[in-house]
């Protein structure tokens, strides 16, 4: 049985997701933190040490959340691979039955066709019913990189610009392997026509978390460099985190004309700088 590009693409996502989990746990081990979490040790800590421990525990909690999302994505892709292989196996078996019936001259060829079509259609529909899921190449404990599905909002890196510029777009299509996308700028052009459509790969997009995940996102430490959507625009620019206020992040955008100007942006639209 030939392995299709869809299976190879999904298997690549599974392997990459598991590698990301392994790498994250290697860089942030719970063992070292657990050694410090005893009543006597915590009581003996000063305020700075307690704050560092709190940040480490928070980082590990975010790491666990990211690992759960990666495991869920791996499970979805493994189920899709199994469905695809089962459908292909069923089709091969039915083709063998047809060949045997033709060789024997039996009229059962005619009677088996409706059954085969029904079974294959069901299997294929099951596979197609699985919503195609993609992911961004970049991973961070501060932001999910998956799943990217039709309807997801992403930041898209515009090409051939003198400066790096990212704009918010909506995902219209996801490739079978989850690494290529068709996306659309939601902003109409100067003639009020629908926004431009782009082709993008997973190294050119960052997932904008859905509103349902707002409460689960980890806060950025002071001084973190980020990509943030400038208020009343759909364009993302580089900025530095200077604080938090409820569900917003206080930022200093690069290149602001007003010296030391601070701007508040909702947490969903403050994305980590793209680093693998």
From TrEMBL:
<feature type="region of interest" description="Disordered">
    <location>
        <begin position="91"/>
        <end position="142"/>
    </location>
</feature>
<dbReference type="InterPro" id="IPR047287">
    <property type="entry name" value="Tudor_SGF29_rpt2"/>
</dbReference>
<dbReference type="Pfam" id="PF07039">
    <property type="entry name" value="SGF29_Tudor"/>
</dbReference>
<keyword id="KW-0804">Transcription</keyword>
<dbReference type="InterPro" id="IPR037802">
    <property type="entry name" value="SGF29"/>
</dbReference>
<dbReference type="GO" id="GO:0005634">
    <property type="term" value="C:nucleus"/>
</dbReference>
<keyword id="KW-0805">Transcription regulation</keyword>
<dbReference type="InterPro" id="IPR010750">
    <property type="entry name" value="SGF29_tudor-like_dom"/>
</dbReference>
<keyword id="KW-0539">Nucleus</keyword>
<protein>
    <recommendedName>
        <fullName>SGF29 C-terminal domain-containing protein</fullName>
    </recommendedName>
</protein>
<feature type="compositionally biased region" description="Low complexity">
    <location>
        <begin position="117"/>
        <end position="126"/>
    </location>
</feature>
<feature type="domain" description="SGF29 C-terminal">
    <location>
        <begin position="144"/>
        <end position="276"/>
    </location>
</feature>
<dbReference type="InterPro" id="IPR047288">
    <property type="entry name" value="Tudor_SGF29_rpt1"/>
</dbReference>
<dbReference type="GO" id="GO:0000124">
    <property type="term" value="C:SAGA complex"/>
</dbReference>
């Amino acid at each position: 049985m030939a392995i299709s590009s869809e299976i190879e693409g999904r298997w690549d996502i599974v392997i990459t997701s598991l590698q990301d989990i392994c790498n994250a746990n290697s860089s942030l081990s719970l063992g070292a933190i657990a050694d410090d979490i005893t009543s006597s040790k915590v009581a003996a800590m000063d305020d700075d040490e307690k704050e560092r421990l709190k940040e480490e525990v928070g980082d590990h909690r975010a790491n666990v959340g990211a690992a759960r999302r990666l495991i869920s994505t791996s499970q979805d892709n493994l189920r899709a691979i199994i469905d695809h292989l089962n459908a292909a196996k069923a089709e091969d078996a039915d083709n063998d039955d047809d060949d045997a019936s033709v060789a024997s001259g039996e009229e059962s060829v005619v009677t088996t066709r409706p059954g085969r079509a029904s079974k294959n259609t069901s299997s294929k529909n099951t596979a197609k019913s699985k919503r195609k899921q993609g992911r961004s190449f970049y991973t961070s404990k501060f932001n999910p990189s998956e799943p990217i599905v039709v309807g997801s909002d992403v930041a898209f890196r515009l090409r051939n610009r003198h400066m790096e510029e990212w704009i918010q777009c909506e995902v219209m299509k996801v490739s079978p392997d989850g690494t290529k996308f068709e996306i659309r700028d939601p902003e109409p052009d100067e003639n009020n026509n629908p926004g431009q459509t782009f082709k993008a790969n997973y190294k050119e997009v960052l997932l904008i978390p859905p509103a349902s995940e707002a409460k689960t996102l980890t806060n950025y430490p002071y001084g973190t460099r980020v990509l943030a959507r400038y208020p009343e625009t759909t364009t993302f620019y580089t900025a530095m985190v200077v604080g938090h206020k409820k569900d917003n992040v206080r930022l200093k955008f690069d290149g602001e004309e007003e010296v030391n100007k601070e701007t508040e942006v909702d947490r969903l639209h403050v994305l980590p700088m793209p680093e693998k």
